Amino acid sequence: MASLQDDAAAIDTPSDPMNDPAAPTPYDRIGGEAGLRRMTQRMYALMDTLPEAAAVRAQHPASLDGSEQKLFEFLSGWLGGPPLFTQKHGAPMLRARHLPFRIGMEEASGWLACFHGAMTETVEDVELREFLWSRIEPLALHMRNMQAVPLRWADEG
């Protein structure tokens, strides 16, 4: 099972353009707390409105405020800012935390559509967007815990 270090290690590899100790962190480049909050709030606003996010939206409580706050806290530390999530909740253990929810391709794709839309709308730095997407897409797909089954198989069983 993946740990926080496993999940977050992908953002800190030597070949990353963000790995120069003298350069601003991705957290700084996104605009710090205000920029990150703008993105996470927009993401959950999209989750409430995008038809392609219906399956993932159904996995959340009526109010998305707590989910938005937890994503904000996680991304803060993951992007090189204050480690808010670990301070409040301990190690993220993302996969383990998501196991109680049925997450298939539809849910993962809906979540990614919301993230991508919010990132595109709120993050002006194209290089940073490309970097974030290259890390968040595989991480989100790693959260899947439902086997993809061709539709024709579902009718056979």
Plain-language structure description:
By secondary structure, the protein is mostly helical. Helices cover 62% and strands 0% of the residues. It contains ten helices and no strands. Helix 3 packs across helix 5, helix 3 crosses helix 8 and helix 8 packs antiparallel against helix 9. The relative contact order is 0.17.
Summarize the amount of helix as a percent range.
55-70%
The SSE order reads HHHHHHHHHH
Mean pLDDT across every amino acid position: 87
Query: Beta fraction of the residues?
Result: under 5%
The general outline is globular
The oligomeric status of these chains comes to single chain
Note the main attributes of this structure.
157 residues, mainly alpha, 10 helices, 62% helix, globular
Summarize the structure.
The protein is mainly α. 62% of the residues lie in helices and 0% in strands.
Produce the secondary structure layout.
Elements: H1 4-9, H2 26-30, H3 32-49, H4 54-57, H5 65-78, H6 84-89, H7 94-98, H8 105-122, H9 126-142, H10 151-154
Helix pairs in contact: 3-5, 3-8, 8-9
